[in-house]
């Protein structure tokens, strides 16, 4: 069965690795090509946009794809929307592999933001020193901030304008809880800004914030696009795909 995995996440790499071990699947992982040193999955991969939903539909048809797995990041809303349109137009089933959201627990102080711009307004209203851990996309929303100093962490440097007072750290997770605590202490951080990405790779910052009593401005996920089936684990996705063989 020819499977297209829309990737760019650790789950997509895990799924590609699992399906590669089963000769009944022929998989192709697609990456946007945004990071300079991408972690390539097992099996075949391609890099770069398809040219919108129409381009993706044409690609699916031309490569005789039988199932599309949208394993993109929960905040990659455009790609998920295009996948929904393209899969429906070609008549190919679409599985959404979506990791569970983080939820606040005892000891967490979370302030809910709907967008990066909303988060920027909140941060500016009370923070002197913020830890901006939203990746490089969306950092532009904080560019107008004059009050707050930012520790900005992303894999590649943001291309957009940055806030005037900041330090940029380029790093790729996973991040250890103790290291996160040390980073927040060293920089006297008074708020952590995060997307609700979910997943264990970057959860350490939330545990660190809880232990230090630091609030987290949590940016909510964009609305989900329609799909034929939604699964929140790689095991579940493999099992579902096997039922389609
Ligand atoms: P996006 O805004 O939803 O997509 C913008 C455009 O990038 C899409 O229309 C598509 O171009 C292209 N694209 C995105 N994902 C692609 C993929 N897997 N394969 C081929 N083309 C892709 O996406 P984004 O938020 O920039 O994210 C880009 C990639 O980074 C995704 O693969 C995502 O899984 C990963 N990522 C995103 C975030 C995040 O916070 N957004 C975090 C970690 C990883 P065309 O219209 O030309 O097809």
Question: Could you please describe the fold and organization of this structure?
Answer:
This protein is of the alpha/beta class and 245 residues long. It folds into two domains: 2-100 and 223-243, NAD(P)-binding Rossmann-like Domain (Rossmann fold); 110-219, Rossmann fold, CATH 3.40.50. It is built from seven helices and twelve strands. The chain has helices at 10-20, 52-62, 77-90, 116-126, 177-186, 204-212, 234-243, and strands spanning 2-6, 26-31, 44-47, 67-70, 94-97, 110-113, 129-133, 149-154, 166-170, 191-195, 216-219, 229-231. Strands 3-2-1-4-5-12 form a six-stranded parallel sheet, with helices on both faces. Helix 3 links the parallel strand 4 and strand 5. Helix 2 (52-62) crosses helix 3 and helix 5 crosses helix 6 (204-212). It is elongated, with a radius of gyration of 19 Å. NADP nicotinamide-adenine-dinucleotide phosphate (NAP) is lined by residues 6-9, 30-32, 34, 49-52, 55-56, 72-73, 75-79, 82, 135, 137, 195.
């Amino acid at each position: 069965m020819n499977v297209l995995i829309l990737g760019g996440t650790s789950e997509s790499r895990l799924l590609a690795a699992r399906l590669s071990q089963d000769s009944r699947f022929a998989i192709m992982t697609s990456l946007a090509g945004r990071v300079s040193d991408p972690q390539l999955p097992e099996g075949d991969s391609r890099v770069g946009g398809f040219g919108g939903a129409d381009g993706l539909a044409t690609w699916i048809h031309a490569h005789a794809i039988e199932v599309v797995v949208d394993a993109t990041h929960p905040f990659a809303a455009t790609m998920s929307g295009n996948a929904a349109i393209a899969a429906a137009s070609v008549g190919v089933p679409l599985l959404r592999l979506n990791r569970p959201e983080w939820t606040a627990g005892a000891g967490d102080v979370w302030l809910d933001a709907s967008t990066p711009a909303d988060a920027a307004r909140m941060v500016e209203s009370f923070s002197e020193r913020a830890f901006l851990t939203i990746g490089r996309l969306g950092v532009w929303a904080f560019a107008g901030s004059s009050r707050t100093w930012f520790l900005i962490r992303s894999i590649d440097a943001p291309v957009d304008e940055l806030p005037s007072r900041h330090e940029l750290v380029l790093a790729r997770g996973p991040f250890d809880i103790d290291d996160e605590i040390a980073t927040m202490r060293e920089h006297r951080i008074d708020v952590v800004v995060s997307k609700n990405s979910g997943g264990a790779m970057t959860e350490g910052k939330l545990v660190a914030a809880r232990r230090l009593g630091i609030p987290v401005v949590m940016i909510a996920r964009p609305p989900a696009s329609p799909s034929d089936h939604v699964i929140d684990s790689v095991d579940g996705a493999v099992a579902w795909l096997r039922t389609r063989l």
